[in-house]
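Reproducibility note. Readers wishing to regenerate the assembly model reported in the main text can use the exact inputs given here. Chain order matters: entities are listed in the order in which they were concatenated for prediction.
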Amino acid sequence: MENSEESVRKDRVITDGAANLISRVEELAYELTIGEVMSRNVKTIAPGTKMGDVMETFRHARISGAPVVSNGDLIGIVSLEDLIRALRESNIQAPVGEYMTRQVMTVKAASPLIEALKVFDQRHIGRLPVVDENNKLAGIITKGDITSGVMRSLQYDYQEEEVRKYRARHLFEDIISDRTSLTLRYKVKHGEFALGGNASSHIKKALLRLGASPQIARRCGIAIYEAEMNIIIHATRGGNIRIEIEPNQILMETLDDGPGIADIALAMTPGYSTAPDSIRELGFGAGMGLKNIHRCVDDMYLDSTPGRGTRLEMRINMQSQEQLGDTTHKS
Amino acid sequence: MPTLQDIIDQLELKVLTVKRDFDAVVPASGYASDLLSCVMAGAQKHSVWVTLQSHANIVAVAALLDLSAVIITEGAMPDPASIAKANEEEINMFFTQKPIFYVVGKLWEMGLRSE
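Running the prediction on these inputs yields the following structure tokens for the assembly.
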């Protein structure tokens, strides 16, 4: 079993290649918690510490501020500015309690990062103490922690998706045969409208991972979606989708043993549909499905026998520059 | 051209899915239909789709077409499962009580066009 942090990160994979990095950072601000990016080993100061000793602590730890803690409770925060004030007043023998800021703004470790960003945005402060659910000090967060936390997470997402794509793209090169193909099979249930589009979106993602162009993936996605919906709407016993991916072509086949199509030419006519009203109300059965498929694929062949079932074959050819895998060394 | 944030603000849309940097998204065009196959045929990549359908299948359509956002009209509220699916597929879903005609008119006024 993977630990929970890993499973959280798996949900953050960048999909469809060039994801918009800016909006990704924004998303991460909502997905990551303050606890995930804060510094945990916090230098704390006791209220009785002399300001002169605080200066030494800052110098050694290379920090510019620290929370003041008494019996585990956060009672204030002391920063370089406070230290400068003490120096100006030649009072570095004074205890921290005299110079620290008492009303400390804190954030919760379990809150999303955006909460800390908002506070930094509204107030001109450099650091925020982080407290746990019992209001005990859990860590400290600076703008620098946020930047490095987000960068780490982006890097992780990016690497993971790149590794997957790299592996998938080299599939056709790494396996040597006279003719290599990858077959994907999906079962489609009759009447399962809520699952409609699942097979097509999985196929589209698979093609993108294999290095297909977004146009090819989109055309396949649309064709399969329509074929998938036809099974869900009409094939009373469900059906199967089979996709055979080769470097230079994609063959798609749907097969069902449903009621079949009485007049194929009529079924191909835009606007013609046998879908019942209940299904049309949901926006299906517009009579455009087969027409859409025809538009998206290079070849299609529809074969049906009433009472026996329907078989639909579709093919998309890939131009040489669109071929899957790196085929340059083969030519 | 308006950004998604401009559209959300001007039409007072409710954002049903995860909030993103909507200022950074400029939709390419607009499309309106409740017939999914027509959407499949007619909606351009990165467009905004206006519909009163609210079932989970609109998410599949929007994801397959790489739409920028779906605006669901006339108070048709998708169920939580559909919204979860939209988040999973990274589809932006907005909601309004206003009818399609009003929404499309406003979008056109804001400079969004049909391809």
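We highlight two features of this model. The first helix of chain A runs from residue 4 to 10. The radius of gyration of chain A is 31 Å.
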